[in-house]
Amino acid sequence: MLTEFRNPILPGSHPDPSICRVGPDFYLVTSSFEWFPGLPVFHSRDLVHWRPLGHVLDRPEQLPLDGVRASGGLYAPTIRHHDGTYYVVCTLMYGTAETGNFIATATDPAGPWSAPHWLGEPSSFDPSLLFDDGRVWFHATRPADASGHTEVWLRELDLATLTLVGPEHVIWNGALRDATWAEGPHLYRIGESYHLLAAEGGTALDHAVSVARSADVTGPYEGNPRNPVLTHRHLGADHPIGSTGHADLIQTADGDWWAVLLAIRPGLNLGRETFLTPVGWADGWPVIPGVREAETRPALPEHRWPAESACDTFDEPGLRPCWNQLRTPRERFWDLTPGRLRLRLRPETLTERACPSLIARRQQHAHFAAYTALDFTPASGNECAGLVLLQNDAFQLRCEISLGTARLIRRAEGTDELLADRPIAGGRIRIGVEAHDQEYRFRLDGAEFGAPADGRVLGHEPAGSFTGAYLGMYASSNGEPSTTTADFAYFEYREL
């Protein structure tokens, strides 16, 4: 058996991980922001190999993402298990129909999950739960003033009615003087003490993890004099793993402690990914040595899951868990038959806050190749279909097939730039992209199309984004009504 594993354990845009253990099984959820289905759920038995189980919010009536801005939507979920029920608490930010904190429940982490039960508190975010001696404590972050300074507050949750009851307690406002964004709080009862783990310093280079403890769940909490207990801020912007923070602790059945957390591999378009690192204890405080690309494996039996084929031929009854749509699909715009994904052209486009005809997945590797085969006969020059890589509505790379023409378009800061075009004949056309770091080379029917495109347009920093790049298949009639469809015979994604 291998003695090491490679970080990240969930590559690509999987930020804000939260984890729980039920017997030998570990379950993990991450943020999903404006993407649907919401809140992916993963399953592992060795903390290293993970398989997707589904999503907490996979029905349109559960998730009102209509009109949500880029990097809005679902922030920082927490998953916990108690007495046969799984609980996920989360925040919907910048919603147009609903906003604030909610809780969803299930007896099976694979679902189905309940409709969200809204808890209110629209100014609060990053909620978590602590089950302790028959009581449940809801805790979250909220602004303390207008400067970006935040505080962690606590209140009891009545499980029978799923309402917050009793007095409110402010228990933490950051470890460092003038600290900003004390967020992502998680409480644990460890021995006779309550430990509060919280992120601090924002989600960029200064991200960090601090810890405090108390003899009473409502406080007062004393900070660890060695705070922060985890940060890579001192290693500089060129370190291969940066922005470490937003951690959640887990203990194995043998008593070993680990932390899942988010971090960024600078210079790539993968966003904030999920990493795993060991946790020790000294003087009653957690000690987290840092996050490494190669780390010693947990002392658990290795458990690999069967690998999915790199090529999706759309011969399953539904879409694979890797596929996503932008915002809530209020109408069905796609159909599956064996060997074909059909997208219906609709007026919505990739450049607006809408739900376009798009089926996309995360970019998960710095070096990858993706290919699809498109059968498409546009009825007018307004209609297009093709392959897209997008950060959000303002930053994209699009390889579009339109009426007799193929176009390669770079979109930055909301403005389109034509990089290449060429006439094409009708019939099936094979579209592909091969990426190496920030060089993206597009191909049509095996021939290179245009000069290599600069992939930095897909990075999270230029866009001010919380997500990594996504890629997939789309179709649009660009504001006009249409009855045209576009058929994709397969989609292949491979690490190179």
UniProtKB/TrEMBL annotation:
InterPro entries hit by this protein: ConA-like_dom_sf, GH43_C2, Glyco_hydro_43, Glyco_hydro_beta-prop_sf, Glycosyl_Hydrlase_43
Gene3D superfamilies linked: 2.60.120.200, Glycosyl hydrolase domain, family 43 (2.115.10.20)
Biological processes annotated in GO: carbohydrate metabolic process
Record site feature (Important for catalytic activity, responsible for pKa modulation of the active site Glu and correct orientation of both the proton donor and substrate), residues: D126
GO molecular function, one term: hydrolase activity, hydrolyzing O-glycosyl compounds
UniProt superkingdom: Bacteria
The UniProt record lists the keyword Hydrolase: yes
Family: Belongs to the glycosyl hydrolase 43 family.
Positions of the catalytic residues: D16, E183
Keywords recorded for this protein, A-Z: Glycosidase, Hydrolase
Annotated Beta-xylosidase C-terminal Concanavalin A-like domain residues: 311-494
Name of the featured protein: Alpha-N-arabinofuranosidase
